[in-house]
Design a protein that fits this description.
Strand 2 and strand 3 form a beta hairpin. By secondary structure, the chain is an alpha+beta fold. The longest helix is centred in the middle third of the chain and has 26 residues. It is built from 24 helices and 14 strands. The chain has a six-stranded mixed sheet with strand order 1-5-6-4-3-2. The chain has a two-stranded antiparallel sheet with strand order 7-10. One of its GO terms (cellular component) is plasma membrane. It comes from Anthurium amnicola. It is a single-pass membrane protein. One of its GO terms (molecular function) is ATP binding.
């Protein structure tokens, strides 16, 4: 799957002198190859002039590539070689609308570009000769318009073939900084990869490199972004290369840092300095083209490489029965990890990396070569239902991307290993946060924010056009928190799809005691209202700090829903609701918003589904409450914490102390 090949020789009349300006190859054979290629390719360079601003684009190559880089296996300089050339093409496309140049102009550009790099000493000849990925030798029309599928002469032709609106909207017109907005970054990544594969399908082609470059030109040539925006896009795309390409792949390494900012200059040279500074900043940005091509190529190759092994795994080998597996698991947008890669990421599944353990398996902290932390859930293969949940979760999360659903980065599917790899949520889960003796850190405003985030994720699932996805296990341990306190819903192992025209689906009852809709439990018919009920329980927990189910003095169990019914039956008024508020909040809560949230929670846990609101209605209420709180800076209530009809109870009746962990929940036990 070699990438674009670059010409390696100068066009000057003294190739030996030019080479000495960089570094002489240590091998006599390499010098012979260099001179031979020079003699073969020099005539092409003289046949036409290249319209690209090669000098400007070449400044993207950092000085480290000249000082230290002699082989592509030791540095990421090949990426910069490719990126600088492609950025020149993007700039020209932005000015003229031309995508791929006709031959012999295309050949002239590649030849003159390679010559310029050596003449300026930006790279060493040894680097260009070390790997075909650094060289264009052997294929002088690699970039020529019409020489391969996807290599269209104009940007208009590219956009007429494939819909690039998502890529343009999500990548170029999205947040100012994709690196500060992980959900937006993921959405951009998915849009770019999807557009490239759509172009491959439209052209009936396997030319991934050409189609990837065409997609990039089509997305970015309409209007070049400022460098800070472009750089954030690059850093977003780096995640794909590092998460997909770099892990366990010896010849794919992180790119070196961009060149340092230029030193202050005199007024007479300020103009030139500004130009150099812009080029230096863009050096990091242009790597996006490499990353796009890399991720698409690697996804394609890994898909082909793994298909045979996927097909060879039978239901017996997986401990499943019947036809639960269906078709092979999706791979688009996901990295297929090997067991050895996961062992490397988790230090051999070291017990010190253990985040938690549940019915489905153990969850470990992992770290990719890029430094990114991940959560690795190993599934108990001997438990047939849990392996089935593994498949279901991959199928669901591979299709769904939302800011408030946890992101599945990839999975491992081998005869001796089943594992899911998620983004790491450093804030732990909501259950642990509420259980902490310092749960007061979850202010009332933050609790409402968490509720709104979860409601938004559920509303998205319930309103999908092809049929609602019912989570079936909404509970605090399945709500993960980021460092900023924002929440994401996790663990889709027992989720169920309800067809668009159906009112319910009959199925085995799944869920966790205290959160299961009583109507679903008695009839075995699942619908979106089951999630509404479970969410209502979570909302009551956020309000009270109580557990979903607590033991009674007589040895029985009482649910938080019964407590809510008792409050309503007792005719508690507005001033009496203070007794149900988590006392750890002190007076830091707003009385009117507490009343509204309680009414909302109570409506969610009504015994019959036709009495409950839809999640989009729940979300609308929470958004309004949140807007009011944020507008008033969450002031303390005048009568906050006043005695009411519901005793606060001792600490044991509320969420007990527990260490904070940051793993996806592993428990999906039946009622």
């Amino acid at each position: 799957f070699f990438f674009f090949f670059f010409l390696v020789l100068p066009t000057s009349n003294s190739p030996t002198q030019e080479m000495s300006a960089v570094s002489r190859p240590r091998s006599g054979a390499a010098l012979v190859v260099t001179l031979l290629l020079s003699g073969l390719l020099l005539p092409a360079a003289a046949a036409a002039d290249c319209p690209y601003d090669i000098g400007y684009a070449a400044r993207m190559i950092p000085p480290e590539c000249s000082v230290n880089a002699t082989t592509s296996f030791a540095t990421g300089c090949c990426w910069f070689v490719f990126a600088s050339y492609t950025y020149a093409a993007i700039r020209y496309a932005n000015a003229t609308g031309a995508a791929f140049l006709p031959d012999p102009v295309a050949t002239a550009c590649t030849t003159q570009f390679s010559a310029y790099l050596l003449r300026r000493g930006l790279v060493k000849a040894a680097l260009l000769l070390s790997d075909d990925r650094c060289s264009l030798a052997g294929d002088p029309i690699k970039f020529a318009a019409g020489s391969r599928p996807c290599q269209y002469p104009t940007v208009y032709a590219v956009r007429s073939t494939v819909d690039l609106s998502n890529g343009t909207r999500l990548c170029t017109a999205g947040p100012r900084s994709l690196t500060d907005d992980q959900p937006a970054c993921v959405a951009c990544q998915n849009a770019v990869i999807a557009a490239t594969f759509s172009l491959l399908d439209a052209t009936h082609s396997k030319e991934i490199v050409a189609c990837g470059m065409a997609t990039t030109l089509g997305i970015w040539s309409s209007s070049l972004p400022d460098l800070s925006r472009f750089r954030s896009y690059v850093l977003c795309m780096v995640q794909i290369l590092e998460n997909i390409g770099n892990l366990g792949t010896g010849n794919l390494v992180p790119s070196p840092p961009p060149p340092p900012s230029p030193r202050p200059s005199s007024p007479a040279s300020s103009r030139r300095s500004a130009k150099v500074a812009a080029a230096a900043s863009a050096s990091a940005g242009v790597v996006l083209v490499i990353l796009l091509t890399s991720c698409v190529v690697l996804a394609w190759v890994r898909r082909r490489r793994r298909n045979s092994s996927l097909a060879a795994i039978t239901t017996d080998q997986l401990g499943l029965t019947g036809t639960a597996l269906g078709s092979p698991l999706p791979t688009e947008g996901l990295y297929i990890f090997t067991k050895s890669e996961l062992r490397q990421a988790t230090d051999g599944f070291d017990a010190r990396q253990l985040l938690g353990e549940g019915g489905a398996g153990k969850v470990y902290m992992g770290r990719l070569p890029s430094g990114q932390r991940v959560a690795v859930k190993r599934v108990h293969k001997k438990r047939e239902k849990k392996v089935g949940e593994f498949y279901r979760e991959v199928e669901v999360l591979a299709k769904l991307r939302h800011p408030h659903l946890t992101t599945l980065l990839g999975y491992c599917l081998e005869s001796t290993e089943h594992a899911l790899v998620y983004e790491y949520m450093a804030g732990g889960n909501l259950s642990a946060a509420l259980a902490s003796s310092e749960a007061g850190g979850l202010t009332w405003g933050r609790r409402v924010r968490v509720a709104a985030d979860v409601a938004e994720g559920l509303a998205y699932l319930h309103e999908l056009p092809d049929g609602a996805v019912v989570h079936r296990d909404v509970k605090p341990t399945n709500v993960l928190l980021g460092e900023d306190g924002r929440a994401k819903l996790s663990d889709f192992g027992v989720s169920k799809v309800v067809p668009a025209e159906a009112t319910h689906v009959s199925t085995e009852v799944k869920g966790t005691r205290g959160y299961v809709d009583p109507e679903y439990f008695s009839a075995g018919q699942i619908s979106e209202s089951a999630d509404v009920y479970s969410f209502g329980v979570v909302l009551l927990q956020l309000l009270t700090g109580l557990k979903a189910v607590v033991p009674t003095p007589s040895g029985g169990l009482e649910s938080i829903v019964q407590t809510a019914h008792a409050v309503v039956a007792a005719g508690a008024g507005e001033e009496d609701l203070g007794g149900i508020v988590d006392p750890r909040l002190g007076t830091e809560w707003d009385r009117s918003s507490v009343e509204e949230v309680f009414r909302l929670a109570y409506s969610c846990v009504r015994p019959y589904k036709n009495e409950r609101p839809r999640m989009k209605e729940v979300l609308a209420v929470l958004r309004r409450v949140l807007a009011d709180l944020e507008g008033s800076s969450d002031p303390p209530a005048e009568h906050g914490g006043a005695a009411g009809t519901l005793p606060a109870g001792d600490v044991a009746s509320r969420e007990g102390s527990a260490p904070t962990t940051a793993e996806p929940s592993t428990s999906s036990s039946s009622w």
